[in-house]
TrEMBL record:
InterPro entries the record matches: Glyco_transf_N (IPR058980), UDP_glucos_trans (IPR002213), UDP_glycos_trans_CS (IPR035595)
GO biological process assignments: carbohydrate derivative biosynthetic process
MF term (GO), any: UDP-glycosyltransferase activity
Protein name per Swiss-Prot or TrEMBL: Glycosyltransferase
Length: 411
């Protein structure tokens, strides 16, 4: 496979952030392990290792169906998170993202050129923040690019429809991204990443969502994209179990000095382990979230409401205690609680600068677990989960959209 002139090669180019790495890898596995396509996954070496180590729901044999490539980039600064920042946005990753956008184009161009010489078509699936990948695909004689949209389609619709008519008809209040990220990141998105310019050269978009969740929004977005000659494929969820998590990546939000960090973290972990002994489990590494959400003992999910987590919780029928932090997360929380009616807000976004006291956490958990409102939310989440799983079953909308996409790129 891969050497025949009649073959089609798919190249996935993720953005180097965990929520983005996962989505492209899950989609790549859907195409390679489940559909038998030749799929290449290209990212900086540390992020390839990270994605492979943290993917859940697939066996080792499935991973062998993908060809991984390392995109060499320069060394970059890696400052610690700023616990005093006004907005809990991971600005400490900006040096990595700037370096990636500047350096990854050349090795990706070489990879695509090599594949193009012996393939009938090269299809690039690129994270929308990797505009250079779409531009490189456009340079190929038989290249085609599709953006992979890592947030909800309703969030996309908020940008396509300036009046937000359909969103308002569904009782939703659109939250523009500029209110949820730093100015530095916005400058990166619209200048360095050039998201809007790259979209012009793409053939369409693949979205990690389904009609069971966003049917009307998908139809409206598809109509808007079709007016520009572009296709929309809603093929989610991409993925194929009450556990407490305390991991090093979170420390930057609560600790200051490094020596103090290690000491306080060790004390906190020891005390928390004692308090939860017999009733819970503490995981100190990367938590297998899919397995946790799939477990019958998991009654609810307290989440920052990233779109990956939203899709995973909804697909397993788990209600969400919504605690958004930045980016599209406040919108996802709005969608979960008001549209899906499968969650309860921990804190409204307009109060995101306030510290949430322990009593508030206790109250929202009790509301979810013992109140009539919570019971209704849990029942609704279960119904949503049933509908989402039906979407990926034989004859389901997502299954059919994925088959349409495969038929399109192998035409």
């Amino acid at each position: 496979m891969g050497s025949s002139p009649e073959s089609v090669a798919v190249v996935a180019v993720p953005f180097p952030a965990q929520g983005h790495l996962n989505q492209l890898l899950h989609l790549s596995l859907q195409l390679a392990a489940s559909r038998g396509l030749e799929v290449h996954y290209a990212a900086p070496a540390p992020h390839v290792r990270q994605a492979r180590a943290r993917v859940h729901g697939w066996d080792d044999e499935a991973l062998l169906s993908i060809r991984f490539h390392h995109l060499g980039i320069s060394t970059y600064a890696s400052p610690p998170p700023d616990p005093a920042a006004e907005l809990s946005f991971p600005s400490h990753f900006m040096p990595l993202w700037e370096t990636y956008s500047a350096d990854a184009r050349a090795p990706l161009s070489a990879l695509l050129g090599g594949l193009s010489a012996s393939r009938r078509r090269v299809v690039v699936l690129y994270d929308l923040l990797c505009s250079f990948a779409a531009e490189e695909a456009a340079r190929l004689p038989h290249g085609e690019a599709f953006g992979v949209y890592c947030t909800s389609v309703s969030y996309m619709l908020g940008k396509l429809d300036a009046e937000h008519r359909l969103l308002r008809e569904n009782g939703l209040h659109y939250l523009p991204v500029h209110s949820c990220v730093t100015k530095e990141f916005l400058d990166y998105v619209y200048n360095r990443a050039a998201v809007e310019q790259a979209s012009a050269s793409a053939a369409g978009i693949l979205a990690n969502t389904c009609r069971a969740l966003e049917g009307d929004f998908i139809d409206a977005a598809a109509e808007a994209l079709a007016a520009g000659g572009k296709k929309l494929f809603a093929v989610g969820p991409f993925n194929p179990r009450f556990i407490w998590v305390s991991r090093d990546a979170d420390r930057g939000n609560i600790f200051t000095g490094s020596g103090e960090s290690e000491s306080r973290h060790a004390k906190l972990l020891a005390e928390f382990s004692r308090e939860s002994e017999g009733t819970g489990l503490v995981i100190t590494g990367w938590a297998p979230q899919l397995e946790i959400l799939a477990h019958a003992s998991t009654a609810a999910f307290m989440s920052h409401c990233g779109w990956n987590s939203t899709m995973e919780s909804m697909s397993h029928g788990k209600p969400v205690l919504s605690w958004p932090m930045n980016c599209d997360q406040p919108w996802d929380a709005e969608l979960i609680c008001k549209h899906f009616k499968a969650g309860i807000l921990v804190r409204p976004w307009e109060k995101h600068g306030e510290v949430v006291p322990a009593t508030a956490i206790q109250e929202v958990i009790e509301k979810m677990m013992v109140s009539e409102e919570g019971m209704a939310v849990r029942q609704r989440a279960k119904a949503v989960g049933d509908a989402v799983r039906s979407a990926v079953a034989v004859g389901g909308s997502s299954r059919e959209d994925l088959e349409r996409f495969v038929a399109h790129i192998t035409r």
